[in-house]
């Protein structure tokens, strides 16, 4: 809301974080891991702008073995969840 004039840096950051968390904004950065170019800005953006798993609350996942969709509540004291893939 710009009716009050200008936004503070805190308001801009809060709005960007919310937009990323809700999927309204998808940041795009370019870099090269082999040349170590653009990696630090990417890591810094992930650290301060992307939601932590605790902020998400719940995720939908497909259970391995039976392909059933289930909702998993994010809980720091709950079981460890892993996701991975192998590409040959």
From TrEMBL:
Key words, A-Z: Elongation factor, GTP-binding, Nucleotide-binding, Protein biosynthesis
Name of the featured protein: Elongation factor G
InterPro entries on file: P-loop_NTPase
Top-level taxon in the UniProt lineage: Bacteria
Classification lineage: Bacteria, Bacillati, Actinomycetota, Actinomycetota incertae sedis, Candidatus Hakubellales
Organism (species): Candidatus Hakubella thermalkaliphila
Biological process annotations from GO: ribosome disassembly
GO MF, one annotated term: GTP binding
Keyword Nucleotide-binding: yes
């Amino acid at each position: 809301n710009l009716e009050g004039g200008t936004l503070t840096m805190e308001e801009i950051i809060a709005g960007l974080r919310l937009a990323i968390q809700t999927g309204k904004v998808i940041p795009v950065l370019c870099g090269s891991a082999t040349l170590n170019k653009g990696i630090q800005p990417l890591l810094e953006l992930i650290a301060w702008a992307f939601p932590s798993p605790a902020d998400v609350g719940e995720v939908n996942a497909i259970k391995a073995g039976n392909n059933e969709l289930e909702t998993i509540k994010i809980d720091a004291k709950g079981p460890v969840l892993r996701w991975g893939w192998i590409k040959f």
